[in-house]
Amino acid sequence: MNRYLMILWAGIVLLLGACSLAPSYTRPEPPVADAWPQGPAYAQAGTQSETLGAADIAWQEFYTDERLQKVIAAALENNRDLRLAALNVQRARGIYGVQRSALYPAVDATANGSKQRTPADLSSTGDVQYPERYDVNLGVFGWEIDFFGRIRSLRDQALESYLATEQARRSTQILLVSSVADVYLALAADRENLFLSQATLKDQQASYQLIKRRYEVGLATELDLNRAKTQVATARRNIARYTLLVAQDANALQLLVGSPAEVPKTLLPTDLASVRPPEPITVVLSSDVLLVRPDILQAEHQLKAANANIGAARAALFPRISLTTSVGTASAELSGLFDAGSGTWLFNPQVAMPVFDARLWSALDVAKAENEIALVAYESAIQTAFREVADVLAANGTIDERLAAQQMFVDAAAETYRLSEMRYTKGVDSYLSVLDAHRSLYAAQQVLVELKREKLASQVRLYAVLGGGGE
Length: 471
What we know:
The chain is about 60% helix and about 10% strand. By secondary structure, it is of the alpha+beta class. The protein has one domain: Outer membrane efflux proteins (OEP), CATH 1.20.1600.10. About 35% of the residues are buried.
């Protein structure tokens, strides 16, 4: 008996020391430049020693506005997409546990009892017999000894799939955090434009009343009166438009938060000036910082999973060694089940060698193709990430100049409007010049609000594309 136990333990040693037929994994070289693009559109990048990576900065440290922090926290707690991503991680972790457990034998305890009637003409004694049998066994049934690493490769594939799912959850969180911030800023900008439209309506109504009185005394033409009326109608239309946008922004924010309770009004911004800007981020010079982005880590784990799958497909071409063994006791009577001399044992190793199965070779071809697909997907993810960061760096590098130029434009348009209105009041010029000046001023003010939102949004975007917010 001890000899067979030693054989069983030898099988366990073979399992633990099994070889693997999976290709050795080496991280592919990133198919992008080592540094970010340079030129007049890009701000100067820092060095590795000057700053932490965005992925190392918690979102609570980056988003300094306390009201926005509370909205983001509510979204992280209630958003259904993030919950779904977390459940996917939990499922993948369970699948990995199942696959890992296949490496070890499952020990089962069985108990059987039988009694049957044997007719006299079938009995060896010529009498009716009632044979009984009772047995209790403890054993391992059909355990595959992973000599060629097939199960270990499947375990590694499940592990990498689990890790990829975890990175997908981090990507979902980053997207959620940045989306909440984007919608929050859009709501602030649209509310600021709504206030601007309301102020414009008041000014246009005052101008209309002034022109109406001048028209009644013959100092203004009917054409001027109708032109002033169109300005009032345009301002009312703009108020309705921005009222709609504010409502849609609030609905989008509510959807992202995912809470059945409405987001408190006290947490919503009144305008862009009421939003505290995020902390500035200094971008490191090397583009290797992209390798910590969760979507790229996800693609790399998927590449590793495909690599491990090749090992499983290769191992399927080799013999499978399985073992069934048990020890127990048996007796013809239930009362004698545990008497001396009733012990039983079973040792049944089995080797199955695939002789001809074209499906196994096709499966290996599929595994190799999937590995190439995963490699291309990994390289594509890096290239896409590089382009996203470069675009945001260009936006950040030019936004201040665009803001300064637009502010100059607004100041000049405001002065033009003031002078045009003065000239019209003194009868030097027609109301058409006032109308044109006001249209130019209002459009310039709208662009200025959009650029202010874009500056804050580009900081949010830079934090997200560098992997921040997914801790």
